[in-house]
Amino acid sequence: MRQGKRALGDQFAIAMHRPTCRLHLQSIRDGTMRFWPGKPNIHALGMQKYLRELSGVVWREQNNAYREGLNLQEETITECLLLQMARDLPNAGFRVRLFTREREKDTGADWVWFFKQGPCRIGFRVQAKKLYRRHDRRPGRTNQLMPGRYDGHVLKKGQTKTLIKRAGPNNPIYVFYNHDHVKNRQLFRQVSSGFKPPSFWGCSVASANFVERKKSRTLSVLHPGMRPLHELFQYGPGCGLANGLKLLDPDMETKMHDGDPDWARLQENTTEMQSYLMAENLNGIAYFDASEVGEDFFVPC
Length: 301
What we know:
Blueprint: H1 8-11, E1 26-27, E2 33-34, H2 42-45, H3 47-67, H4 74-88, E3 95-100, E4 110-117, E5 120-130, E6 135-136, E7 144-145, H5 159-166, E8 171-177, E9 203-207, H6 208-214, H7 219-222, E10 227-228, H8 240-248, H9 271-279, E11 282-289
Parallel strand pairs: 4-11, 5-8
Antiparallel strand pairs: 1-2, 3-11, 4-5, 6-7, 8-9, 9-10
Helix pairs in contact: 5-6
């Protein structure tokens, strides 16, 4: 494959050159390309470990992209993340459906992620923000890295209030894509919050209510309210994802669906689905049906 014709999704999968941890593109039987170190045994991993591995991919590939001169955007990372989940999770018994809005001039940035497991039906209205790499370019500063900031989170536009208002029956959350190309990267190594390898923070989550209260876009202010993505998937009585939300923000009102949402009956790329996405100002919907997945898959490991 020639470099000039490499697809955007393949750019997300630039190979690591460290001999001890080689992440490489692998062709699979259907001819597509993967950004995973071989074919993982998803069922053996369990949900939490799988999401930790996936967060590690996001962490490493952002670092790799910076080294290669690329600046991956939220939309690219989100689509690659969901594509990988759609490929992998059916091996554990999930039924995954993805709906994407046709590209228009004014496309909504939010996604709805909907999960179904037993009697639990819970949705999230998700807005993704990436941690920006910034340099201090003042004379004498030798291009030093500056503290982390989510520059795509524009405070004056009232993005968080809009996210909360439009959430409807879904729970409004932020997903943050992180890396260590920031001055205060030690925040991802703090023991006070319980030691977690830095790569676990490749995908982290926070409630929109917490973000709204803080009214900041800096890593130092938002980090205390974040948790690694895998911690959203708790195990226990009731709905594990609802329990995860309570860990994320004890004051947050958890919203549950009584049944499948109306859009679940619609088919991909139909006029009705496109009209729904446009009316809700959504970039897309990800539907994860775990009805056939054994409970042992969700036991923390």
